[in-house]
Amino acid sequence: xxxxxxxxxxLTMADSYRTSDIHILPEQKHYDIYFRLNGQMxxxxxxxxxxxxxxxSYFKFLSNMDVGEKRRPQSGGTTxxxxxxxxxxxxxxxxxxxxxxxxxxxxxxxxxEENKIPGIFxxxxxKKLERLVQSKSGLLLFSGPVxxxxxxxxxxxxxxxxxxxxQQVITVEDPVEIEETSFLQTQxxxxxxxxxxxxLKSSLRHHPxxxxxxxxxxxxxxxxxxxxxxxxHLIVASIHAKNASGVIARMQELxxxxxxxxxxLIGVAFQTLLPLYCSLCESNCRTYCSHHDRGKKxxxxxxxxxxxxxxxLTFNEPTERGGGTVSVKRExxxxxEKVFMNGYINEKTYRxxxxxxx
Length: 358
Prior knowledge:
- InterPro entries: ATPase_ComGA (IPR047667), P-loop_NTPase (IPR027417), T2SS/T4SS_dom (IPR001482).
- The protein has helices spanning 3-16, 49-62, 123-132, 150-161, 196-205, 219-230, 246-253, 258-264, 307-313, 332-341, 347-353, and strands at 21-26, 30-37, 40-48, 74-81, 86-95, 101-107, 138-143, 169-173, 184-187, 210-213, 234-238, 265-275, 277-278, 283-284, 298-306.
- The chain is globular.
- A hairpin with a 4-residue loop joins β4 and β5 (86-95).
- By secondary structure, it is of the alpha/beta class.
- It has eleven helices and 15 strands.
- The N and C termini lie far apart (51 Å).
- The longest helix is centred in the N-terminal third of the chain and has 14 residues, at 3-16.
- It has two domains: 3-107, Beta-Lactamase, CATH 3.30.450.90; 123-353, P-loop containing nucleotide triphosphate hydrolases (Rossmann fold), CATH 3.40.50.300.
- The strands form three sheets. It has a seven-stranded mixed beta sheet with strand order 9-8-10-11-7-12-15, with helices on both faces. A six-stranded antiparallel beta sheet has the order 3-2-1-6-5-4.
């Protein structure tokens, strides 16, 4: 099979398995290709050194990277046309000290795979989020590791909010991960001078009901997000932090004052996807096992805190109910232990996802 035909075959198989990433990694005398399936790396193909090098060069050419440059890390993207659909891919290369290149291909999720309700462990937290997104204005922040389903959750909640009435929803992302025709989706383009800040300013002038922000990365983005929440818009955004209460510290690190957070923040959600234990596999459920459906081998665990709970826990202010601080019984580690004790995950998964010093 020539390089182009194998590339089509590789992406077709990865798409059919709902792979999030393809890893093409160098060994001493060959290349191994792994699919990241349900959060786990699974080996799929073996290529000799020349085949692996040609495959990486082919993908670099398609994504407008410098094919001859192997010393510097590079990134790029393209839309790849398969026999029955087009898929959006993002590429990243890094070489080791022997100048052997590795390539990771991220397959961006498509609309038809993302219309389903996310698989979740506890409905209590999800219903809490559904109530929070009904707010007319304010800031709702999502946090969690990469590939934890944050974008899926934000899209599903806002799409549900809009049912029955026409609302203008604008997304500001880098890149757009899920195609949703009912939203006005915009994408950062650094080469054209279109930054997060620029798109957010333009979005606010467009008078939307809701703005979804892919990620708050810097002080300028944080400032524009706070401005949008103050001027009567509902802003739903993601930000990297260790847990729900850690989001406050991260926003303060980006220059947002405590008083401004109190005015705008309506809630914070931390989520991660946990691999389910399978009694047949006697481990996390394998890709080809039929005990759990292919798309349900991982379920989302949420920690959700409202503004009142955040006031009591993080800002050390008493609540209206009793004058003392709120005991947060549904914090992440407590829920994780509950999932483990009920046999949904194994001990190894429990220890891996337990948040120390939370």
